[in-house]
Design brief:
240 residues, single chain, Rossmann fold
């Protein structure tokens, strides 16, 4: 298991956000972290990328305790839920800057620019870019890093259908290169047929984990139903 969360708890004061969260992400797999807005997905990711510290529990990365790993040793490519950028740099300068930091990544900038359809925007600063173009820039920046784990928080926001398909293709290529991939989204239809397994989150708890077939079998549900239908049925069964 490349990334593993063990009994993670987190709270803001007395407001409990995460409750005994346990799951793992393997190399060579795409794992979907799915649930409604406010379920705790972003808080989980913030704990993984060290923006937050768990109140209790352990996170391991490649067998090492995350708390003992320095930020520059994380080997994680991360697409945040909110854009992060340098306002004074153009889109192309952002890409060149990241590529200079990770020269051994053999991905071709021009090919990435073409695939993400960024050519018309290369010389624009971030404030001149649409939400969708900013998101494509963040995807390109993440892909230019050297990483063993790829984590994306709501990465489909702002993307048109063509770019969603291209982004999924990039993820599939990363999986083929034996990377550990975690995709967080409330848009459950976006990860249908993409993910190898799913972590279903509700009110800060893992309510189901595994492949679509494993989850359906555990709850006695029809595996032919969509991931969204399975999630909603599991939620309904918990509320009864």
């Amino acid at each position: 298991m490349y990334l593993e969360l063990k009994n993670i708890n987190f709270s803001y004061g007395e407001n409990v956000i995460l409750k005994n969260v346990n799951f793992g992400v393997e190399k060579g797999e795409i794992t979907g972290l799915i649930g409604a807005n406010g379920a705790g997905k972003t808080t989980i990711i913030y704990n993984i990328v060290k923006k937050l510290i768990p109140k209790s529990g352990e996170i391991l990365l490649n067998g090492k305790l995350l708390k003992d790993i320095q930020m520059d040793e994380l080997n994680i490519a991360y697409i945040p839920d909110e854009p992060v950028y340098y306002e004074e740099l153009t889109l192309m300068e952002h890409l060149q800057f990241v590529h200079a930091l990770y020269p051994s990544n053999d991905i071709d900038i021009q090919e990435l620019v073409k695939r993400m359809e960024l050519q018309p925007h290369l010389h624009k600063i971030p404030s001149m870019l649409s939400k969708g173009t900013l998101q494509k820039m963040l995807i390109a920046i993440a892909m230019l890093r050297e990483y063993e784990a790829f984590i994306a928080d709501e990465p489909f926001n702002g993307l048109d259908p063509k770019q969603i398909k291209e982004f999924k293709n990039l993820l599939i290529e990363s999986r083929a290169n034996n990377k550990a991939i975690l995709i967080s989204t409330h848009l459950l239809d976006m990860v249908e047929e993409l993910c190898d397994k799913y972590i279903m989150i509700c009110a800060g708890e893992v309510i189901a984990a595994g492949s679509k077939q494993e989850i359906a079998k555990k709850y006695g549900l029809d595996s032919k139903k969509s991931v969204e239908e399975l999630y909603l049925q599991i939620i309904e069964s918990r509320e009864q």
